[in-house]
Design a protein that fits this description.
two-stranded parallel ribbon
Length: 158
């Protein structure tokens, strides 16, 4: 039997019991900028909050949202970071992505096997031109955005 998102979250000591239905793990303000498009959501996790006690000074990605994806034949995780979107913040996002990858290789291993994408949602205006060197750096690390709003596509991987 395949392990689902909630069960995988519960297998991680720092995250056990923290998976929430739908987008409820996202702050109210952040829920408003993530649209589920009527697709099936399996749950969400506020990773930043879950890891705050064990890694207070580390870079921490904000959220994971699990949703249905026909292309991935099951559950798909969209990792969401809400952060100011200026050229000077790109390094922060890249560092947070590296920290997330390291965490997924260790304590977060139960979530590593899910197909996923990484999205940067701007907490204010987006100050990165589409053809900027900073956007190319993000693309090389497979980070989408920054964007003001993100839509989880029904039945499709993001």
């Amino acid at each position: 039997m395949t392990v689902g998102f909630v069960e995988a979250v519960d297998r991680i000591s720092a995250c056990a019991g923290r998976a929430q239905p739908g987008k409820r793990a996202l702050s109210t303000q952040h829920r408003a900028v993530v649209d589920a498009d009527g697709g099936e959501l399996y749950g969400s996790l506020n990773l930043d909050e879950a890891l705050a006690a064990s890694a207070p000074n580390e870079n921490r990605w904000d959220y994971a949202v699990a949703h249905a994806c026909v292309e991935a034949d099951g559950q798909y995780i969209t990792w969401i970071e809400v952060h100011p979107a200026t050229p000077g913040k790109v390094k922060d996002i890249l560092d947070k992505r590296s920290a997330l990858d390291a965490w997924l290789d260790t304590e977060g291993k139960p979530l590593r096997g899910f197909p996923c994408c990484h999205v940067w949602i701007a907490s204010g205006g987006v100050g990165l031109p589409l053809n900027s060197p900073e956007r190319r750096k993000l693309a090389l690390r497979r980070i989408k955005g920054p964007c003001k709003h993100y839509k989880l596509r029904r039945g499709q991987c993001s």
